[in-house]
Amino acid sequence: xxxxxxxxxxxIRAAIGKSKAARVLVQAPEGFRTKIQNxxxxxxxxxxxxxxxxxxxxxxxxxxYHTAKDLDCQLIVHIGHAxxxxxxxxxxxYVEKFSDADPTPILEREFFxxxxxxxxxxxxxxxxxxxxxxKVKSWLEDRGKKAFIGVPPAAKIVKLAQPGQILGCNVGTGxxxxxxVDAYLYVGGxxxxxxxxxxxxxxxxxxxxxxxxxxxxxxxxxxxxxxxxLARIGQFRAARNVALAISTKAGxxxxxxxxxxxxxxxxxxxxxxxxxxxxxxTPDKLTGLKIEALVNAxxxxxxxxxxxxxxxxxxxxxxxxxxKE
Length: 325
Ligand code: SF4
Hints:
This protein is α/β, with parallel strands linked by helices and 325 residues long. The chain has twelve helices and 13 strands. The protein has helices at 6-19, 33-45, 65-70, 104-110, 133-142, 172-175, 192-200, 221-238, 253-256, 259-268, 302-305, 315-324, and strands at 23-27, 49-52, 75-79, 92-95, 120-125, 146-149, 183-188, 205-209, 214-217, 241-247, 272-278, 293-296, 312-314. The protein has a five-stranded mixed β-sheet, sandwiched between helices. Strands 2-1-3-4 form a four-stranded parallel β-sheet, with helices on one face. The protein has a four-stranded parallel β-sheet with strand order 11-10-12-13. It is flat, with a radius of gyration of 21 Å. Bound molecules: iron/sulfur cluster.
């Protein structure tokens, strides 16, 4: 992980100056841990107390303003994600940490793996690599292909900050291009984001992996994701004892909006439903509960990421299933 740049440090200093904070809460994803003490020391050098919020952080949905308030922090420094639109009672400065890594050498070496029949591409990325997309667009256009970068559509629940940026729970900048592209090129690390495209679009998805320097065709994994989801939906329909989980993360509250109504609808459908709330929805927190299914009214990607002892189904899918009955 590269050091923090002068611009990033200046952004943090400016936000601290503007907020006149005497104490700040700093949070960052796992990958930044080895550098986090540098940031804490930089803040301390300003005569400001820094507290590292050492809980895992997977997105800008996770703004711990309740903790900031409890600890009397006047600013949250959120590293590694772009502003998601979360309403926070404590001001937040977002330090996105853009990478300047160039994906074109990977394209030079590996583009032969992309089906030559594809003439037009939708380009998407996670926030760290989003600045590389114009380079990829030029590279493709120089070779006679068409390439498009979606401008973030109006936010429903989750705001996208940059052209071509996608999140696990919002692939809007890719989805909006679906009718005019033959395939997607996702530039970045990890399967989490390209899987979001697989689940929400029908076009082939190629992953330009900035970590391994390879290109992967992940399209065939779409069928497995769909099969697994259909199996879980079938198990949910048969389940009588169900837990409905809501996360306390500030930016995931929007997913929970319909949870109470959904509970009533499930009960009308003959299910016994218990409401649960927790910060992160993880399998260990179901220990001891006698349930046959878990309905998730939080981050919609938990269903792909974690293995639970009972089938997990997203609240939106559960609502859709109940409508059919
Ligand atoms: S809700 Fe889930 S997918 Fe969306 S930003 Fe948060 S952690 Fe990522």
